[in-house]
Amino acid sequence: MSKQQVKLDNWPFKNGEKAQLVWLSSPFWQSKKIMIYAYFKAKGKTERVLADWGTLPALAIQHYYMNGDIRKSIAPAEAKEVEMTIYPNTVSYFEKEWSIYGTLDKDMSRSFIVSSNNKNYVLPLIEVVRSILAPNRFLLYRLFETNSFPQYFIEQYEANKIHLDFSSLYHRKYTKDNFLYQLVWLLSNQDLRRVFENVAYTFINTGIVKFDWLFTKPITIKAIVKLSSNGGTILRITNVKNKQIPYSEISFSHPEIIQTEKSGEAKKYTLHSQNSNGSQQNELALDEDVEGTTDNFDLIEMDNQVHEYVKLPKVTKIRRNSNKQRNFENENTKRYFIDDQGRRSTSDVGGSKVAKGLENKSLYDIQVQGELGEFIKVLKVLENYSEVQSINVIQGSLKEFSDIKRFVYLSDGVTERKYVIAEIKLFPNKKVSVIEVEREDRALSTLICFINNQQNKSYCYHQILNGLIDSHRTWDKEGLHFNKINFLTLRHGKKDFRHRAKAIIRKIY
Q1: Domain segments of the chain: what residues?
Q2: Sorting pLDDT into bands at 50, 70 and 90, what band is 169?
Q3: C-alpha to C-alpha distance for 180 and 298, rounded to whole angstroms
């Protein structure tokens, strides 16, 4: 395991002071992100720490932490590891109001009482979430989205085989075998899937994460348990055993997984991450104000828990397209250095960043210079056409969709490349989206989209802009056709903004 530390930035205790995690709050919305409160106690004093929901896998109740480092936890001395099998008919639900030690805060304690070997154990509902239903960050955040799986992958079933065709919304790091096994286990066990998918409906309607024990099969676990005379309290599940996947093969495809052919050409550019001192970091600070996560956090989670399967299916990677693989640098290779201050968030990949980036604004609230400023002038002319009912504008940066792709920056390697989406409503009831991205010196056309399902337009925008980034700085027409998005392109001419507005209205009306 790496020696790199991952610290809670808002850690309230002194260095070297052991603090015990005494409570994890119910999740809640704050600033368009799912958050939790973690309550830590040291020397009789309890402090409340705000954390992203995605930090949950690294937090174990009643365990001790030092210096805010969530990579290391210490179980209480009286705790023991116990193996047990939970049978559906031996589980009951229990809840009661709870006063959090050392504070005036109250919360609702939600747990299951499970019987094993003539003893009763308290299993916190939040532990079931993080260890059985959603043991990685992708699944944790999908808990709060209704019917969202089709945005991330299409399921195809054959005899003894499942194929998952992932979209660019599904982060490539989740195509590692361990994540695929967990995902397919959830998808293929209908009782688990039903519980998982019902969590979102309950949370949206009540603000509460709550569910019944509807699992139809026994679940065998190993857990750290604080023992009592008649059983105990399960503090952390360390191992989920005997999981069954009813397929002998899992195949998958992903837009970022492509055929590569070795090339004798040198790399055109390289990206290097460094902090302000130019040195490699051995400490990352978790900051709840930062949006998006990075590749290494889910790998940390997997160190905390083991999942065992009766038989592991074969995993087959289906590659698309082809690309040159340049293996060396020369004097012509441009080196770009991205300033890395070591601040991270465990919130979802993209997630809240995309939601913020896709907020509608009035046309007259947009302040942007350069090429996009000229596009705003075009839109203001368009708004005066009798055919146009209204125009709303979405403004953002391509960096919302990727932190590592070169195209998200302008040629200086620092300035973020911006985009503007104009949502144009025409009489009597026609809607068109016009997308303009900073071209700099590139021959990138304006994209005009006709999106049939307006409720799904944010997903479509995400797909379109991700496709632009991934397909070497051109609109991914194959991807647009695949996602059934009707579109037109309009080349940039040298005419003024009035002429360009007229050209757009001819295209869209």
Answers
A1: 5-303, 358-508
A2: confident
A3: 13
